[in-house]
C-alpha cells in the first residue's frame, strides 16, 4: 500500500514540477521575445528551481531535467546574441552568479560558460576549470549528477582537442583530459554517496536507482576515449592510472563493477593489450563482492575478437605475454575469492580457453595448460552436480573440438581426459556424443591404435556401464541412439596398413567386449564388417612372402571374428550371430580356406538347431543358409554333401507346409551352379523338386480337410516355374512331359468344384503361361525346346 | 511425370556411417512423389530421413532391419505401372535374373525392385523390368566386390518409364539412363 502510494505521489510531484516549469517557461518566453534580460534571468532561475526537488527518483528527475534542458537551449540562443540583450558575455558570466539559489545559479553559469568558451575571449581551460570546481557547491547526489551531466553535455563540443577550434596558446588536449577526469571523479563520488542515503531495507531500491544513473558517470569515460589527443601513451600514463585510482579508492562494489566494465568496453582493444598488466593489477584490489569473473570474461572476449578480426596484431599478443598475464590474473582471482562457486571458475577458464584458441591456436601447450588449471580446480571434489557448472565444462571441452575440427589434435591434450573424468556419468556421455559428432561432421579418420585407445577412453561412458549407473535406467530410444553413434564412429577408424588396421580392431574389441549384453548387438556388427573388409583387402593382394611371419593374415582375422561373434551368445542374439557367421563363411570361401568356411557353417547350423525357435525366423534363417551355401565353391564333395543334406533336412522340417515347400525347392539350386565347374546334378535337383511337389500336395489336402475347400495353387505354379528354370538350363532330368503334367495338374486344381478362385495365383499362372508362350515364339533353340509343351 | 526414388541396402550403421553427402544434397524434399526401398536400412533414423525426402514411403524387409514389421514384399500401382518390391535375400540364387523373373510373375508387376546384391542392374524381359538400385551407401557386400554408392530414380510418364541410375564413382556422381515402354496399359 505504502509503495503504491509512493509511486502515485512521485507521479504527482513530477506533474507538479513539470507544471511549474511550464508556468515559468511561459513568462520566460515572453521575456525572451521582448529581449528583456532581467526578466529572462528571473524566470529562468524560477524555472530551474524546480530541479531543486529531492522527492523524485532518478527516472522521474530525468524527465524534469529534460524539460529544463530544452528551455535552457532557448536561453542559450538568447545569451549568445549580444545584440538582443546588450550584455557582453564576460559581464553575463558575472551577472548570473547573482541568482539566489545555488542550483539555478550553476545551471545558468554553465550555460553562459558555454557561450563564453565559444567567444574565445578567454582560454577554454579557464572556464572549464572554473565550472568544474564551482559545481562542487551541489553535493546532493542526484542533483549534482544531473548538473555535472549538463556540464559535460554542453562542454562536449568545446573541449580543446587537437585540431579543434579551441586549441590554442596554453589550451591543449591535456586540459580537456584534466577537465573530464575531474568531472568524472566528482560524479563518481556523488554516485557512490548515494548508497548511504537510504536505510538498509531500501538497499534494493537504492541499487536500482543507482543503476539508472550509471551511464551519466560512464559517459565521461566515453568522452575521454573520443579525445583525439589521447593516444596510447597518454592513456597509459595519465588516463588509465587516474581512472583506476578513482575506481579502486571509491570502494563501492556497484561502481567498481560498472566502471571496470566500462573501461573495457569504451577504450580500444589495442590499448588494453598494451596496458594489460596495469588493468589486471586493479582486479585484486577491488571489493570482494565485485563479480570480477564476468568483467574478466568480457575482457578476454574482446581480446579474442580483436585477435580474430585483426590477425596482424597477433605478434603483439605474444610480445606482451598476454596469455601468461591473463592466466596468472585468473589464478589469483580464483584463489582470492574462496567463496566463488565452481561455475564461476570454470566460466573463467572457458573464456581463457576461447581467448587462447583465437590468439594462439597453434600453442597446444597453452590449451593444455588451461585444461590443467581446470583439472586442478576440480580435483579433490566430488563429481560435479551443478548443472550450470557441467554445462560450462562441456563448453570448455567442446571449444577445442570446434576450433581444430580434428579430434586427433584434441586427443593430444593430456588434460582433456582428466577434465572428463570429473564429469558425472550423464554429462560424460553428453560429451562423448559431442566428440563423436565432431568426428563424423569433419569426416576425421582416426588411424592408429594408440589414438583409438585415447579416443575410446574418452568415450568410455558410452561403451560400458560407469560406476553407479546401469543401462536399465536409460530411456531405450536414447540408448539406441547412443549405441548407433558408437557404431557409426567405428567406420572412421581406419588405416591402409593391414597390420595397424588389425591393431585398431583389436583395440576396439578390447573396449567393446566389456560393453555388456545390451551394447554388443550394436557394436559387434560394425566391427565384424570392418574385419571382413580387411580380409578382402588382404586376399586381394598378391600372395604373402613365403615363410615370413605376416602379422595380419585372413586366418588370424577369422580367429578374431570367431571370438567376436561368439560374444553375442551372452546377449543372446542368435539370429544376428547366424547372419554374421554366414558372412564370414562367404569371406572364408573367397580366401579358399575350406576348414574355416566349414567351421563357420557349423556354427551357423548349431545356432539354427539350438537357438532359432521362432518359425518365421527359421524360414528366413534357412533361406540365408541355402543362399550362402549355394554360392560356396571351396568345398570338397564330402563337406558339401554334409551341409546340403543338413540344409534340405531342415527345410523339410519347417513348421508350415508352404514354408517347407518353398525351402525345399530353394534347395534344388544347391545342386546346380551355373559356373563352368559348378555342380550340375540334375538328379538331385529333380529329387528336390519332386519332394517339394509332394509337400505342396500334402498342403492342398490339409486345406481340403480343414477348410473344406482347396487352397490356392500358388505353390504348384511356383514349382512349375522352377521346373522351367532347370528345363531351360538344360537339365536332362526335367522333361517336357513332367512340365506338361504339372500344367495339367494346376489347370485341374483350378477348375475343380471345391476350388476357391484366387486372383493372385490366377494371375501368376497366367503370366507363367504367357512366359512359356513367349519362349515358344522365340524360335531358335529355345523355341524348339519348348515346342512339345502344349498350352 | 511421376518421380519414384528406388534405393536400399544402406546398412546404416552396421556397414556404413551415412549416405554420401553428394547424394544427400540431391535428395531434396518435395521433389519426389514416391520412395521404394529394398530394405536393410537398418535403423529408425534412416527411416525418418527417408520420410522427410518423401512421405509416401514403401519399404521391404531386409534381413538386418531393426524394424521387423516391414512386409516381405509389397506391390503398388503408380500411373500405368504396377510395381513390386522385395529385399531379394529370399530369391535363390541371389541375383539370379531368371529366379527374380519368377518373383515378378508371382507378384504380377511390370517393374520389380529388389536388392541384396549391392549391384545396380536393370534387366528387361518380355514381361517387364527387374531393377536393383544397388547400395545407396556403397556398403560391403559378400556378393559384390566392387560396390559404388548408387540409387535409382524412375520417371513414370504414361506408358513409358525412364530409369536414371546415379552412381558415385571416385567422388563424382555419374548418371546413366535406360528407357522402357509398356506395350499395353494395365489390365484391371
Automatic annotation (TrEMBL), chain A:
<dbReference type="GO" id="GO:0005829">
    <property type="term" value="C:cytosol"/>
</dbReference>
<dbReference type="GO" id="GO:0010008">
    <property type="term" value="C:endosome membrane"/>
</dbReference>
<keyword id="KW-0333">Golgi apparatus</keyword>
<dbReference type="InterPro" id="IPR005378">
    <property type="entry name" value="Vps35"/>
</dbReference>
<keyword id="KW-0967">Endosome</keyword>
<keyword id="KW-0472">Membrane</keyword>
<dbReference type="GO" id="GO:0042147">
    <property type="term" value="P:retrograde transport, endosome to Golgi"/>
</dbReference>
<protein>
    <recommendedName>
        <fullName>Vacuolar protein sorting-associated protein 35</fullName>
    </recommendedName>
</protein>
<dbReference type="GO" id="GO:0006886">
    <property type="term" value="P:intracellular protein transport"/>
</dbReference>
<dbReference type="InterPro" id="IPR016024">
    <property type="entry name" value="ARM-type_fold"/>
</dbReference>
<keyword id="KW-0813">Transport</keyword>
<comment type="similarity">
    <text>Belongs to the VPS35 family.</text>
</comment>
<dbReference type="GO" id="GO:0005794">
    <property type="term" value="C:Golgi apparatus"/>
</dbReference>
<dbReference type="GO" id="GO:0005770">
    <property type="term" value="C:late endosome"/>
</dbReference>
<dbReference type="GO" id="GO:0030906">
    <property type="term" value="C:retromer, cargo-selective complex"/>
</dbReference>
<keyword id="KW-0653">Protein transport</keyword>
<keyword id="KW-0963">Cytoplasm</keyword>
<dbReference type="InterPro" id="IPR042491">
    <property type="entry name" value="Vps35_C"/>
</dbReference>
<comment type="function">
    <text>Plays a role in vesicular protein sorting.</text>
</comment>
<dbReference type="Pfam" id="PF03635">
    <property type="entry name" value="Vps35"/>
</dbReference>
Automatic annotation (TrEMBL), chain B:
<keyword id="KW-0653">Protein transport</keyword>
<protein>
    <recommendedName>
        <fullName>Vacuolar protein sorting-associated protein 29</fullName>
    </recommendedName>
</protein>
<dbReference type="GO" id="GO:0030904">
    <property type="term" value="C:retromer complex"/>
</dbReference>
<keyword id="KW-0813">Transport</keyword>
<dbReference type="GO" id="GO:0005829">
    <property type="term" value="C:cytosol"/>
</dbReference>
<dbReference type="GO" id="GO:0042147">
    <property type="term" value="P:retrograde transport, endosome to Golgi"/>
</dbReference>
<dbReference type="InterPro" id="IPR000979">
    <property type="entry name" value="Phosphodiesterase_MJ0936/Vps29"/>
</dbReference>
<dbReference type="InterPro" id="IPR029052">
    <property type="entry name" value="Metallo-depent_PP-like"/>
</dbReference>
<dbReference type="InterPro" id="IPR028661">
    <property type="entry name" value="Vps29"/>
</dbReference>
<dbReference type="InterPro" id="IPR024654">
    <property type="entry name" value="Calcineurin-like_PHP_lpxH"/>
</dbReference>
<dbReference type="GO" id="GO:0015031">
    <property type="term" value="P:protein transport"/>
</dbReference>
<feature type="domain" description="Calcineurin-like phosphoesterase">
    <location>
        <begin position="4"/>
        <end position="157"/>
    </location>
</feature>
<dbReference type="Pfam" id="PF12850">
    <property type="entry name" value="Metallophos_2"/>
</dbReference>
<dbReference type="GO" id="GO:0031410">
    <property type="term" value="C:cytoplasmic vesicle"/>
</dbReference>
<comment type="similarity">
    <text>Belongs to the VPS29 family.</text>
</comment>
Amino acid at each position: 500500500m505504502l509503495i503504491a502510494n509512493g509511486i502515485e505521489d512521485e507521479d504527482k510531484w513530477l506533474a507538479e514540477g513539470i507544471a511549474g516549469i511550464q508556468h515559468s517557461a511561459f513568462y520566460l518566453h515572453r521575456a525572451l521575445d521582448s529581449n528583456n534580460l532581467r526578466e529572462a534571468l528571473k524566470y529562468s532561475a524560477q524555472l530551474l528551481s524546480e530541479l531543486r526537488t529531492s522527492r523524485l527518483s532518478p527516472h522521474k528527475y530525468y524527465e524534469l531535467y529534460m524539460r529544463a534542458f530544452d528551455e535552457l537551449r532557448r536561453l542559450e540562443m538568447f545569451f549568445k546574441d549580444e545584440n538582443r540583450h546588450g550584455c557582453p558575455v564576460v559581464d553575463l558570466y558575472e551577472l548570473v552568479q547573482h541568482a539566489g539559489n545555488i542550483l539555478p545559479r550553476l545551471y545558468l553559469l554553465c550555460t553562459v560558460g558555454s557561450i563564453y568558451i565559444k567567444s574565445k575571449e578567454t582560454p577554454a581551460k579557464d572556464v572549464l576549470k572554473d565550472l568544474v570546481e564551482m559545481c562542487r557547491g551541489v553535493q546532493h547526489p542526484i542533483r549534482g549528477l544531473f548538473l555535472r551531466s549538463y556540464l559535460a553535455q554542453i562542454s562536449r563540443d568545446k573541449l580543446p582537442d587537437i585540431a579543434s577550434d579551441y586549441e590554442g596558446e596554453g589550451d591543449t588536449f591535456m586540459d580537456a583530459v584534466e577537465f573530464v577526469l575531474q568531472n568524472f571523479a566528482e560524479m563518481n563520488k556523488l554516485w557512490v554517496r548515494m548508497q548511504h542515503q537510504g536505510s538498509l531495507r531500501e538497499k534494493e531500491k537504492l541499487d536500482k536507482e543507482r543503476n539508472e544513473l550509471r551511464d551519466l558517470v560512464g559517459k565521461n569515460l566515453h568522452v575521454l576515449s573520443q579525445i583525439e589527443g589521447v593516444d596510447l601513451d597518454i592513456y597509459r600514463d595519465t588516463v588509465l592510472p587516474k581512472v583506476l585510482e578513482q575506481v579502486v579508492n571509491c570502494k563501492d562494489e556497484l561502481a567498481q563493477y560498472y566502471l571496470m566494465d566500462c573501461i573495457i568496453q569504451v577504450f580500444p582493444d589495442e590499448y588494453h593489450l598494451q596496458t594489460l598488466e596495469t588493468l589486471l593489477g586493479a582486479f585484486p584490489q577491488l571489493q570482494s563482492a565485485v563479480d570480477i569473473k564476468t568483467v574478466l570474461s568480457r575482457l578476454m572476449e574482446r581480446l579474442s575478437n580483436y585477435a580474430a578480426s585483426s590477425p596482424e596484431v597477433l605478434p603483439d599478443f605474444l610480445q606482451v605475454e598476454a596469455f601468461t598475464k591473463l592466466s596468472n590474473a585468473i589464478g589469483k582471482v580464483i584463489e582470492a575469492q574462496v567463496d566463488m562457486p565452481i561455475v564461476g571458475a570454470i566460466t573463467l577458464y572457458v573464456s581463457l580457453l576461447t581467448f587462447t584458441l583465437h590468439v594462439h591456436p597453434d600453442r597446444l601447450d597453452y590449451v593444455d595448460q588451461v585444461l590443467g588449471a581446470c583439472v586442478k580446480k576440480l580435483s579433490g571434489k566430488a563429481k560435479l552436480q551443478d548443472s550450470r557448472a557441467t554445462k560450462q565444462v562441456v563448453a570448455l571441452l567442446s571449444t577445442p573440438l570446434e576450433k581444430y575440427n580434428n579430434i586427433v589434435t584434441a586427443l593430444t591434450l593430456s588434460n582433456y581426459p582428466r577434465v572428463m573424468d570429473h564429469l558425472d556419468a550423464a554429462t560424460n556421455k553428453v560429451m562423448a556424443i559431442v566428440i563423436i559428432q565432431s568426428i563424423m561432421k569433419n569426416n576425421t579418420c582416426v588411424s592408429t591404435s594408440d589414438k583409438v585407445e585415447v579416443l575410446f577412453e574418452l568415450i568410455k561412458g558410452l561403451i560400458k556401464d560407469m560406476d553407479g549407473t546401469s543401462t536399465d535406467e536409460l530411456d531405450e530410444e536414447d540408448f539406441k541412439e547412443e549405441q548407433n553413434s558408437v557404431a557409426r564412429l567405428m567406420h572412421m577408424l581406419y588405416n591402409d596398413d593391414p597390420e595397424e588396421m588389425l591393431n585398431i580392431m583389436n583395440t576396439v574389441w578390447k573396449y567393446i567386449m566389456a560393453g555388456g549384453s545390451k551394447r554388443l548387438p550394436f557394436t559387434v556388427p560394425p566391427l565384424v564388417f570392418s574385419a571382413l573388409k580387411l580380409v578382402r583387402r588382404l586376399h586381394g593382394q598378391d600372395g604373402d612372402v613365403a615363410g615370413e611371419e605376416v602379422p595380419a593374415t585372413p586366418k588370424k582375422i577369422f580367429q578374431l571374428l570367431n571370438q567376436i561373434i561368439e560374444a553375442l551368445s551372452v546377449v543372446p542374439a542368435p539370429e544376428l550371430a547366424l547372419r554374421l557367421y554366414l558372412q564370414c563363411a562367404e569371406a572364408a570361401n573367397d580366401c579358399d580356406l575350406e576348414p574355416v568356411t566349414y567351421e563357420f557353417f557349423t556354427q551357423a547350423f548349431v545356432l539354427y538347431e539350438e537357438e532359432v525357435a521362432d518359425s518365421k525366423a527359421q524360414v528366413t534363417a534357412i533361406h540365408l543358409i541355402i543362399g550362402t551355401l549355394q554360392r560356396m565353391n571351396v568345398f570338397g564333395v564330402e563337406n558339401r554333401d554334409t551341409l546340403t543334406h543338413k540344409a534340405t533336412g531342415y527345410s523339410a522340417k519347417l513348421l508350415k507346409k508352404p514354408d517347407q515347400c518353398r525351402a525345399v525347392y530353394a534347395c534344388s539350386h544347391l545342386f546346380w551352379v551355373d559356373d563352368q565347374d559348378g555342380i550340375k546334378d540334375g538328379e538331385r535337383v529333380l529329387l528336390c523338386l519332386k519332394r517339394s511337389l509332394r509337400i505342396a500336395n500334402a498342403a492342398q489336402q490339409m486345406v481340403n480337410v480343414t477348410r473344406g475347400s482347396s487352397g490356392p495353387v500358388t505353390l504348384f505354379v511356383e514349382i512349375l516355374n522352377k521346373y522351367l528354370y532347370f528345363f531351360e538350363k538344360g537339365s536332362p532330368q526335367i522333361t517336357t512331359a513332367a512340365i506338361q503334367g504339372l500344367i495339367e495338374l494346376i489347370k485341374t486344381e483350378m477348375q475343380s468344384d471345391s476350388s476357391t478362385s484366387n486372383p493372385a495365383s490366377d494371375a501368376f499362372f497366367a503370366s507363367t503361361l504367357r512366359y512359356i508362350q513367349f519362349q515358344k515364339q522365340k524360335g531358335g533353340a529355345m523355341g524348339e525346346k519348348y515346342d512339345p509343351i502344349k498350352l | 511425370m511421376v518421380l519414384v526414388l528406388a534405393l536400399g541396402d544402406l546398412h546404416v550403421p552396421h556397414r556404413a556411417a551415412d549416405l554420401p553427402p553428394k547424394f544427400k544434397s540431391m535428395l531434396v524434399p518435395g521433389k519426389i512423389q514416391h520412395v521404394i526401398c529394398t530394405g536393410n536400412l537398418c535403423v529408425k533414423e534412416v527411416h525418418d530421413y527417408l520420410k522427410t525426402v518423401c512421405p509416401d514411403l514403401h519399404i521391404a524387409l531386409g534381413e538386418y532391419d531393426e524394424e521387423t514389421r516391414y512386409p516381405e514384399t509389397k506391390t503398388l500401382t503408380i500411373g500405368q505401372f504396377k510395381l513390386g518390391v522385395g529385399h531379394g535375400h529370399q530369391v535363390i540364387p541371389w541375383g539370379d535374373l531368371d529366379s527374380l523373373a519368377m518373383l515378378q510373375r508371382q507378384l504380377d508387376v511390370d517393374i520389380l525392385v529388389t536388392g541384396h546384391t549391392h549391384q545396380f542392374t536393370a534387366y528387361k524381359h518380355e514381361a517387364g523390368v527387374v531393377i536393383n538400385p544397388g547400395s545407396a551407401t556403397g556398403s560391403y557386400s559378400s556378393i559384390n566386390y566392387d560396390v559404388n554408392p548408387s540409387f535409382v530414380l524412375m520417371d513414370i510418364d504414361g506408358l513409358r518409364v525412364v530409369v536414371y541410375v546415379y552412381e558415385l564413382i571416385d567422388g563424382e556422381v555419374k548418371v546413366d539412363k535406360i528407357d522402357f515402354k509398356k506395350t499395353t496399359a494395365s489390365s484391371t
